[in-house]
Amino acid sequence: MTRDLTSSLFFLMVSVVVFVGSIKLGLGTTRQPGPGFITFGASGLLGILSLVELVRAFTVRQAVQGEPMFKGTLWYRIILSALAILVYALVMPTLGYLIATFLLMLCLYIMMREQRWYWIIISSLLSSLASYYLFSKLLNCQFPDGLFWF
Amino acid sequence: MDWVHHILYGFQVTFIPINLLFCSIGVVVGTLVGVLPGIGPTAAMALLLPVTFKVSAASSIIMLAGILYGAMYGGSTTSILVNIPGETASIVTCLDGYQMARKGRAGPALGIAAWGSFIAGTISVIAMMFVANPLARLAIKFGPPEYFALMCTGLLFVTYLAQGSVLRAIMMALTGIILGSVGLDLITGQPKFTLGIDELQDGVGVMPVIMGLFGLTEVFQNIEQRAEQTEIYQTKVKNLWPSLKDWMDSKWAITRGTVLGFFLGILPGGGGTLSSFMSYAIEKRVSKHPEDFGKGAIEGVAGPESANNSSCGGSLIPLMSLGIPPNVTMAVLFSAFIIHGIQPGPLMITEHPDVFWGLIASMYLGNVLLLILNLPLIGLWVQLLKVPYSILFPLILLFCVIGSYATGGSATDIIFMLFFGVGGYLMRKFRYEAAALVLGFVLGPMIERSLRQSLLISDGSFSIFFTHPIAAVTIGVALLLIISSTMGFVKKRRKAFEEFKE
User: Fold this and answer.
1) pLDDT, position B254
2) pLDDT in the model for residue B386
3) Are the beta carbons of A90 and B411 separated by less than 8 Å?
4) What is the ipTM, given to two decimal places?
5) What pLDDT, in 10s, does the model give residues B158-189?
6) Who contacts A102 (Cβ-Cβ below 8 Å, separation ≥6)?
7) A35, B192: Cβ pair inside 8 Å?
8) For labelling, which of A22, B114, B204, B232 has a CA lying 20 to 30 Å from the CA of B13?
9) In Å, how far are B242, B398, B470 from B130, measured between CA atoms?
10) Where are the domains of chain A?
11) How many CA atoms lie within 13 A of B355 on its CB side?
């Protein structure tokens, strides 16, 4: 499946889901528009445009559509950092800001594999401490204390 | 002489130590962001939003605007010395700026870029001061139909001036409108598309969207590539003060760039990048020696650099006086206003004069600071390019995480940010633009409110958009735009844009 085909199918699907959802929410009348009024119009138009894109995807020749998307890229880095952020979001309320951030920075620096281990530990520690001091102490942002009251 | 009184008041606000500090932080960070490729002013403004939560609205806006025009200054440095544009508005500066550097004229190139930016930046602030206030007074008379027409036409302009496919930009704007409508309904209080998630009842947070689409996406795109060693053109930067001949060659380029940038800044979808591209095209066309362009013509540096700075002042006008952000960078600034509880628009100038006049005065000061920062400290900024991305990216990511978390105090926002980051990355891969989505997202709820209010006023008749003169004219402009695009006018412009990009 080509790039354009995938994306137009995706948007078509989104538009159908929102379209049906808008009808369920209630369209109201033009005198008293309901909650689904705007999304009904927007998703309807999105659906039509996705269809146009879909037709285009079929008519444009394969060769014009470009190279495979992830060819020659270090895509695994994206998956790893996305996973690290996801785990961070899940454990941060329990572990607390400092520990969770230290671990996140450690993971990210290790993933890049460009610095020495002691540099990684020191910079992870410094960045989590400095950001905690800046945002929590100086700027009064509320971070979870977590397991050990820090 | 009301404005003298106002501007003096503005300087009083700017010279409060905390505002002075935030103005300086803004321009320094802006220059830094302009110098470093891989992070643009929009992302930087979003990343530093949390820093401004606990300070006054005036300090916050002064700093964020400083980042924007600071980036326009800083972007030229790397374009000229390294042939790497620090941000998109400086891409064209590479063409002649780098060639000038190779011929040993790096000094005059940097000098004219900085002076051009200074002159254009200052003139655009003066123009903004005289345009924004009367426009705001006029806009007080606007009702929901006028706003609806203005916002729809604005969004249409944004999609037509998008860099990629117009059709896809419209699709993105519509997706943005749909995302913006998530949450409790304005009138009935019914939950809309909240998917049973409690955090979505207040709607999708603007911070996770911006952090994800601009911060995280940028990071993802950079880390998927292998690091390349930047080669810095080894040249001694001397003669930063351009010669009399350089000044004579560039004076009209700077003037044209300033005027063009200012008006393109006001136009929805315009902004720095388009201004610099258009300015280069015009300079090449009016030049007596177009063959020199691309080989080190000073007009090719002076024009675009003036234009991108001038656009900053221009793009603040629709935001300040109408409350409508004309481009994605202004959408971030718009969010900053909202976070501080200020509704940008016609009443803002009278209700929060400290913010408006403080910002204007800070921009005069900021432009002077930037001139001082940029010319003598150029060596320092170039050294910064040697900082490897592997050190920078975890820190950028940390700012994204904190920014998303700090607004709502909920870890779910981090997951939303991640969702938009991955989404933004895929959108770039599939050649869809995030800018139109963000504008649709920000304008969506306002468009919905004004449409529903208009229909309530008119008792359900759409004719209200044609009987109110301003709304009718605006819609007429939108129709003209659609017709002209089918006649190939915009297509031609877009083709020129593509040629420059190559």
Assistant:
1) 93
2) 72
3) yes
4) 0.90
5) 777 776 778 888 899 999 999 999 988 877 88
6) A124, A125, A128
7) yes
8) B114
9) 31, 41, 21
10) 3-65, 75-138
11) 28
